[in-house]
Amino acid sequence: MKFAAIDIGSNSIKLVVVDAAASDSFAVLARKREIVRLGHETLLKGYLSREAIRRAAKCIRRLRSVAHARGAESIVAIATASVREANNSARFVEKMQKKTGVRVAVLSGTEEARLIGLAASQGCSNRGVRTLNIDIGGGSTEISVFRKGQPLTLLSMKLGAVGLTERFLSSDPPRLDQLDELRHKVRTELEIPARELRKHEWDAATGTSGTILAVNAALRLQSAGGNGAADQRKSIINLTDLTQLNAMLAVMNTTQRRSYAGLSIRRAEIIVAGAIVLEETMRALGIESLRTCDWSLREGVIIDQLRQWLPA
Q1: pLDDT value of position 224
Q2: pLDDT of residue 25
Q3: What range defines the domain where residue 191 resides?
Q4: Neighbour tally for 89: CB within 10 Å
Q5: Residues 138-168, buried b or exposed e (16+ Cβ, 10 A)?
Q6: How far apart are CA 200 and CA 311, in angstroms?
Q7: Which of 22, 55, 154, 162 has the greatest number of C-beta atoms within 10 Å?
């Protein structure tokens, strides 16, 4: 069967269309991602503006058309931090149904962590290995530990690249005091989750999300000497390398970061906050390196739905 999932995030809205033979076997027919920045001001003010709702509806209509063109028989759409934190989230869901014909389910932070961890566990982990996954979104960060496709622990924190940038990093490049306040916030928010996670054990660590993939791409470009010939085989982020990269990105303005790290303008605006969350999370959990994974929430939704619909 052909099936599509739409992930309505705080920074971008993403689509994946698959052709599935079983719950653990599917081929990706299409992927599409648009930067909508739904979390812009939403995470600070606590509500979704009319303009944000309008942008989301236009994007989802386009993604629905792509899904239908690829023969998708059904579409499952989910929304994360920017919608769940908004006091008018019910109105958003109503408007999406009315304007696009797509029904949106708003995920809790724990459910988001479960679906992301499920994707990373199935798509990027060795079978039977206990794997910790870190996902840094625009409005929140999710951490999970999975083994054999089942969650051992699930955590969600209100630490996102979009929200933190808007709250703390008002100048470009950011001032030292802004960076210090940001790091203090991240470390404070990590204290309780880190204590909880230390009760568990894991054998490997992975990282998902646009922030982590962008960090990895920047590190590959840096290792290639900035000549544009990044080593595509490297998918490991080392804490030492990340710390050095963050120190350089923090003193650059958006245009310089975009050029230096090969980023889109939208990603360059939020990469400092996102990469600092990654650095502080790895440090708090004692993770010296992690492997990047390009499966995330969309794939988790696909796997979870197919488990319900089809035999393994």
Answers
A1: 74
A2: 82
A3: 129-292
A4: 17
A5: bbbbbbbbbbebebbbbbbbebbbbbbbbbb
A6: 31
A7: 162
